[in-house]
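pls design
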C-alpha cells in the first residue's frame, strides 16, 4: 500500500475534491495527478544496463526491460490513460467496462478487451476504490489474462475497498493519492470527490 507523499499531490487532490472545479479543469488535474501516481506505481519495473554514446564519449545508462500494460476501468479510468501512454509509449492497453448498480452499488461487467498480459507489469487504473467490488472484478479479469505483477492505481481509496482488495488479491499493490475516512450509505467515498465519472464528463 503506497500513499503519495508529495506536496504537489496534496495540492492537486484538494482542487480535484473542490465541488466548484469544472470538468475541463478536473480532467487536467487528474492527468497531472496520474503522472505522480504512475511514477510511484512503476518504480519497481525491471531495468537493464546499456551503453550510450553521448556527443563526447560512451557512458553507462539504463533502459526499461519489462513489458508494461495498463487497464483503465471504464468510464472513470479513461481519465488516467493518456498521461501514462505519454510516459510509456510502448505500453499495451486493455479495457474493462464495469458499472455499479445505482441502488445496490454492486458492479457488473459490460465490456472487456484485454491483450495477452503474460509477463507484463500491469497497472489497473480506476480513480475511485470505494467498496472494492469493481477493482476485484477488474483484477480477476486481468489475472485471467496472465498479468504479473498487478498494481491497482487509484486517486482516492476507502478503507473498506482497500480491505476487500487486500483480502481477495493479497499480492496486488495499491498506489493511491489518499486514503479517505469511510463510505456513506450510498457507498460513496467520504470526504471523497463525488461521482468521478460524472465530474469528468459533465453528466450529472
Ligand atoms: C465508479 C468508479 C469505480 C467504481 C468504484 O464507477 O469509477 O469504477 O465506481 O466503486 P466500487 O469500489 O464500490 O466498485 P461507476 O460504476 O460509477 O461507473 P462510471 O465510471 O462509468 O461512472
Ligand atoms: N464511484 C465514484 O465515482 N465515487 C465514489 O465516491 C464511489 C464510487
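designed seq:
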Amino acid at each position: 500500500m503506497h500513499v503519495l507523499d508529495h506536496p504537489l499531490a496534496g495540492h492537486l487532490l484538494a482542487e480535484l475534491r473542490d465541488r466548484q472545479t469544472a470538468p475541463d479543469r478536473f480532467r487536467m488535474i487528474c492527468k497531472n495527478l496520474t503522472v505522480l501516481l504512475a511514477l510511484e506505481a512503476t518504480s519497481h519495473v525491471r531495468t537493464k544496463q546499456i551503453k550510450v554514446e553521448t556527443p563526447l564519449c560512451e557512458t553507462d545508462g539504463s533502459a526499461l526491460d519489462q513489458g508494461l500494460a495498463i487497464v483503465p476501468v471504464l468510464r472513470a479510468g479513461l481519465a488516467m490513460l493518456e498521461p501514462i501512454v505519454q510516459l510509456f509509449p510502448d505500453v499495451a492497453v486493455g479495457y474493462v467496462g464495469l458499472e455499479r448498480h445505482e441502488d445496490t452499488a454492486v458492479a457488473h461487467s459490460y465490456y472487456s478487451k484485454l491483450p495477452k498480459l503474460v509477463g507484463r507489469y500491469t497497472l489497473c487504473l480506476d480513480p475511485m476504490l470505494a467498496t472494492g467490488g469493481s477493482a476485484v472484478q477488474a483484477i480477476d479479469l486481468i489475472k485471467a489474462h496472465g498479468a504479473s505483477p498487478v498494481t491497482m492505481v487509484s486517486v482516492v481509496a476507502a478503507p473498506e475497498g482497500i480491505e476487500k482488495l487486500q483480502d481477495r488479491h493479497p499480492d496486488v499493490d495499491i498506489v493511491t493519492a489518499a486514503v479517505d475516512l469511510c463510505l456513506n450509505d450510498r457507498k460513496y467515498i467520504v470526504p471523497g470527490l463525488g461521482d468521478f465519472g460524472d465530474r469528468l464528463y459533465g453528466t450529472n
